[in-house]
Design goal:
Bound molecules: heme C
Radius of gyration: 18 Å
Number of helices: 12
Order of helices and strands: HHHHHHHHHHHH
CATH architecture of the largest domain: Orthogonal Bundle
CATH class of the largest domain: Mainly Alpha
Largest sheet: none
Structural class: mainly alpha
Distance between the termini: 33 Å
Shape: globular
Strand content: under 5%
CATH superfamily of the largest domain: Cytochrome c-like domain
Helix content: 55-70%
CATH topology of the largest domain: Cytochrome Bc1 Complex, Chain D, domain 2
Number of domains: 2
Oligomer: single chain
Length: about 220
């Protein structure tokens, strides 16, 4: 936790831009735990009520460091930052992996992930996946929603499910904010900073207007 706060503090002072991420960010524990098999560890934790309770507690304290951006309980307050509440555990682990190896680029988050120990990573996954998502009740133009629904029910539902909640392997997308969804979908389409063959193949034919429509539809799913 000390390293996590140090990392956040340096960024807050603007120093994060001057110092190579790993030099300030990676605690000895985080370095030692870089090789822990997180998928196996998560399974071990979820199989044991005692470990789940401990992990949840640690995750809640980690989440206090993330709250400025991802919101209390993982409902983001900023339009370009994703909700973590209700997110599927294996998707969260996969994003940790992608930030760690540069398949997903975001300078701040790449450093933040390096500053977390294996137990803190598992803790935040256990904590956020158990939190409730706030529903987006704002209204959008009916024509936009209809266009979005058409795309969703032609392409996206096959993996993300009709309710947008995905499954234990696929991301929940229901309820994410429109600006985050739009930039994310466009990044997959071009491969700019988010590499995923399935998402690239399934966004390839979308125009910018399609992206806006489907993002508005997804954002209002519960
Ligand atoms: C300074 C703001 C900030 C803080 C603090 C922050 N994040 Fe992030 N986080 C972001 C942004 C911005 C993104 C989106 C990056 C992108 O678009 O690739 C993100 C993305 C993520 C994602 C991917 C979610 C998804 O839906 O794909 C995870 C997981 C995550 N953050 C976890 C954390 C954790 C855990 C902490 C605290 C230890 C934390 N973040 C602290 C800004 C922040
Ligand atoms: C063949 C399966 C498949 C289809 C179809 C599909 N997706 Fe995905 N989607 C995925 C996978 C797998 C991921 C996680 C990729 C990664 O690791 O970055 C993902 C991730 C996403 C994310 C990122 C979530 C986050 O929190 O950052 C968004 C947004 C998304 N998909 C939207 C869509 C939309 C919109 C469509 C329809 C146009 C669609 N997907 C169709 C498999 C699919």
């Amino acid at each position: 936790m000390a390293f996590l706060r140090l990392y956040l503090g340096l960024w807050a002072c603007g120093l994060g831009l001057l110092v190579p991420g790993w030099a300030v960010a990676q605690s000895p524990q985080a370095r030692a735990s870089a090789n822990v098999d997180l998928v196996a560890r998560l399974q071990e934790v979820t199989d044991s009520p005692r470990l789940t309770e401990q992990s949840l507690k640690l995750g809640r304290s980690v989440a206090a460091v993330c709250a400025n951006c991802h919101g209390e309980g993982g409902n983001s307050l900023k339009p370009d930052i994703p909700n973590l509440a209700g997110q599927n555990p294996s998707y969260l682990l996969e994003q940790i992996r992608k930030f760690s190896i540069g398949m997903r680029r975001n300078e701040f988050m790449e450093g933040m992930i390096k500053a977390l120990t294996a137990d803190e990573k598992i803790g935040m996954v256990v904590f956020y996946s158990s939190q409730k998502v706030n529903v987006n009740t704002s209204k959008a133009a009916p024509a936009l929603m209809a266009a979005g629904k058409k795309i969703y029910t032609e392409i996206c539902w096959r993996c993300h499910a009709l309710d947008g909640r995905g499954n234990e392997k696929i991301a929940r997308i229901a309820g994410q904010q429109v600006p985050y969804l739009m930039s994310t979908i466009k990044r997959y389409r071009s491969g700019a900073g988010r590499i995923d063959p399935l998402m690239m193949a399934n966004t390839r034919t979308l125009t910018d207007a399609d992206v806006e429509a489907v993002a508005n539809y997804i954002s209002r799913m519960e």
